[in-house]
């Protein structure tokens, strides 16, 4: 075979191999594209935490300084107790030394402007200013201490301070040697007159010889005037002093003169331990907790009046001195227990007025309407009520 023929044969064989390979590939299974990878399901977005409710803003207006040791001090202690009770559900604030005058209205309007939704006015003279502001701001809840006017968004509350005054009187009647008691009075409204009378009735229950002298200062917190009034009572023969004013001046004056006296509204025993017989105190916490809880839970309603005493834990007599005889302490404890369970009544006839006429007949019990309007002295109280 020639060389040309060999080359032609090899060429033909090469093309046949290529064709066979092509045919084999063409008859085979085509390569499939990889399946697309499914996207992993995305995790649900974390839900945003519910916004924290805004705290209820509560404001207090005080007639005196928080450090007066008496009336305002007692209210501020209750405000602090509120903060412990409700924590960050509330935010409280106060304005002290707010006068019982037209300026009080400005203070209440400012409290509303700052977003307070529950406002406590803690003295009798705030009644008219609060009524005005309440009428203009129906969305705000107003609470007025010791008043008698209410509205749809304003109610009143009080404590039966006359119960503490009566128990103090029992101690005073036992401790006096001159049989003359002295009272420094603040402002001649029924609340104060009622306390002077109750103090005298308590003293007379253990010592019928007792007489009570009164000096009025016409202010709630006025230490210099209170001191002067206390001294004048001592000069007039009183050896046991009582007060319806807000500072510790009366107790301190008694100590200076080596006489005896009581604390009022708060425990004043630390101011003059040697002179201190006991303190008739107010605990505003139970009522403030009740009012705040109602405001938080939507149960607050205006237009009513609450008057709490020993029974509700609002009134007590504390820090009774070791000078007081044990039998007198026991008697006071029995009276306290009777006031708590209702078996003892202070204002029960026969009770005679200063003029000798009966104000309650035998076994007649004074109701709250009678008590709210007391404007007379009982027998044994000397002097005249200013303006009467």
How do the helices and strands line up, and which of them pair or pack?
Elements: H1 3-27, E1 56-61, H2 71-86, E2 90-95, H3 103-113, E3 118-121, H4 127-136, E4 141-145, E5 154-159, H5 161-175, E6 180-185, H6 190-206, E7 211-216, H7 223-235, E8 240-243, H8 249-256, E9 260-265, E10 276-282, H9 285-297, E11 305-308, E12 315-318, H10 326-341, E13 351-352, E14 358-360, H11 368-372
Helix pairs in contact: 2-9, 3-4, 5-6, 5-10, 7-8
Summarize the structure.
By secondary structure, this protein is of the alpha/beta class. The chain has helices at residues 3-27, 71-86, 103-113, 127-136, 161-175, 190-206, 223-235, 249-256, 285-297, 326-341, 368-372; strands spanning 56-61, 90-95, 118-121, 141-145, 154-159, 180-185, 211-216, 240-243, 260-265, 276-282, 305-308, 315-318, 351-352, 358-360.
Overall residue-averaged pLDDT value: 91
CATH topology of the largest domain: Rossmann fold
Element string (H = helix, E = strand): HEHEHEHEEHEHEHEHEEHEEHEEH
| Overall SS class | alpha/beta
- CATH hierarchy, class of the largest domain: Alpha Beta
Question: Unreliable stretches, pLDDT < 50, 5 or more residues?
Answer: 1-40
- Which architecture name of the largest domain does CATH use? 3-Layer(aba) Sandwich
Strand order of the largest sheet: 2-1-3-4-5-11
> Helical proportion?
25-40%
CA radius of gyration? 41 Å
Number of helices: 11
Major beta sheet summary = 6 strands, parallel
Please state roughly what percent of the residues sit in beta strands, choosing from under 5%, 5-15%, 15-25%, 25-35%, 35-45% or over 45%.
Answer: 15-25%
C-alpha geometry: globular
Number of strands: 14
Q: How many discrete domains?
A: 2
Per CATH, the superfamily of the largest domain is Response regulator
State the end-to-end distance: 161 Å
